[in-house]
Amino acid sequence: MPTLAIEPPPAVTLPVAGSDLVFPVRRVYCIGRNYAAHTIEMGGDPDREEPFFFQKNPDNLNVSGEFPYPPRSSDVHHEAELAVMLKSGGVNIPVDGALDHVYGYALALDMTRRDLQGEKKSLRQPWEIGKAFEGSAPVGPVHPASRVGHPTDGRIALEVNGEIRQEGDLNHMIWKVPEIISYLSDYFELAGGDVILSGTPSGVAAVARGDVMELEVDRLGAMTVRVV
Ligand code: MN
């Protein structure tokens, strides 16, 4: 057993709702522009775009109930999303049967430095600094599919300070969860512990310190996150 050269970084785990279990995180994949109305508001064409992905870091997942407003940005947007947690993976996973790899689901926010993302897009540079920053993925407890099933439809909504900002239905996803898993597995080897953020409905907008975001998805309850 080799001796560690430095203190090991803490393992990233998420609480499993209604139990003492925790879900260990391996990777975090996020799909862009996966609801037609949001694709249009971001200037895209919902009929013709291939899915595209970016990643956040496992330790960007944030269960604290607080979102720390990041430095170097003055336009930080909320994106309300359904997160999918895998219990197993592989490569070239067919769409039929892809859901067999799902452990469960959670509420998540893909917080975005929209100003920096836009600058990097216009420079044709990668936009990690717009997406993969500290605390940038507030997430709720994991609801096992064995208890909640596989939510393919149902309301997804986000209120800020009690006012509705985002509202959509999970069945408006352009690429459905089994298709996302299958597509990703053609490019990456997926594995248990992987987390996939499945995109956001329209209505993304800026937050400010002191705002209270409340995300709700049918069958998964609600999550409250304060911007600090
Ligand atoms: Mn997103």
Explain how this protein is built.
The chain has 228 residues and is of the alpha+beta class. The chain contains five helices and 17 strands. The chain has helices at 36-41, 114-122, 128-131, 145-148, 177-185; strands at 13-15, 22-24, 28-31, 53-56, 61-62, 66-67, 76-77, 80-86, 102-109, 112-113, 137-138, 143-144, 155-160, 163-169, 195-197, 212-217, 221-227. Strands 4-3-15-8-9-12 form a six-stranded mixed sheet. The chain has a five-stranded mixed sheet with strand order 6-17-16-13-14, with no helix packed on it. The longest helix is centred in the middle third of the chain and has 9 residues, at 114-122. The chain is globular. It starts with 12 loop residues before the first strand and ends with a strand. The mean pLDDT is 96. The protein binds manganese (II) ion.
pLDDT < 50 runs, ≥5 residues = none
* Mean pLDDT score: 96
Instruction: Please give the alpha-carbon distance between the first and last residues.
Output: 42 Å
By DSSP, the count of extended strands is 17
Rg estimate, integer Å: 17 Å
> Could you estimate the helical fraction of the residues in percent?
10-25%
Shape: globular
